[in-house]
Amino acid sequence: MPRRALVQKRPYLLLSLLAAIAYFYLQASELPELYLWPIKGSACAFLAIYCWLRHQSDDARLMAGAMAMASIADMAIEFSLEVGAGIFILFHILAIRVFTRNNQGPLSKRDNWVFLLILIGTPIAAYLLPYDRSTAWLVALYAAVLAIMAASAWASNFPRAKVAAGAILFVISDLLIFSGMGPLSGSPIPQYLVWPIYYLGQFLITVGVITTLRKRDPELRVVQGGGH
């Protein structure tokens, strides 16, 4: 994506990228966490604004709401994993609504196997990862909603190279979090990889959905304040 297009026509994507990068590097600084939270939250908040300003369809509004929920969850998860996960469930529900409204219809045999792998494999993997078995079922229940989101993205008519790929990256980032509760406990891998993988997934979902909606329904493009 050309730099000029980002700066002049998609400034909120650029601001989102800058916030995501800033948060990643500032994590290692001595900046108090209280100042880091709004930087982290603004990454998806700017994606929400981008969705709202680029298209005026119901799907774009739902996607904006989903990214707003993700923004709140990104901050909430810093002080409570449970609260953050609860808010992320709202993100998943809104995203599922967008994807199911744009279902591509019957899947091919190969695509159906991938769909089932995402849908079933995600909660099973999540259940097996935590060492504390008392939390395994809660993790699996959250992962089941996550899996429905990713599977519905795969079954949607949005471009898989962006939207489904982004949803799968979201799954990977959460499985890394759950790995930190188990086999990767004490490892720096989740700390360094979760945020960039998660954010890239959210970025791809946002751009894939909105770009498709703008091509599909050009009469609903928002010109003022949202670029053209």
Give a verbal description of the structure.
The chain has helices at residues 3-8, 11-26, 33-54, 58-76, 81-101, 109-128, 136-154, 160-179, 189-216. By secondary structure, the chain is mainly α. The chain has one domain. The longest helix has 28 residues, at 189-216.
Label this structure with key terms.
single chain, 228 residues, mainly alpha, 75% helix, 0% strand
SSE order = HHHHHHHHH
Roughly what fraction of the amino acids lie in strands?
Answer: under 5%
Number of helices: 9
Helix content: over 70%
Shape: globular
Draw up the topology in text.
Layout: H1 3-8, H2 11-26, H3 33-54, H4 58-76, H5 81-101, H6 109-128, H7 136-154, H8 160-179, H9 189-216
Short description:
The protein is an all-alpha fold. Helix content is 75%, strand content 0%.
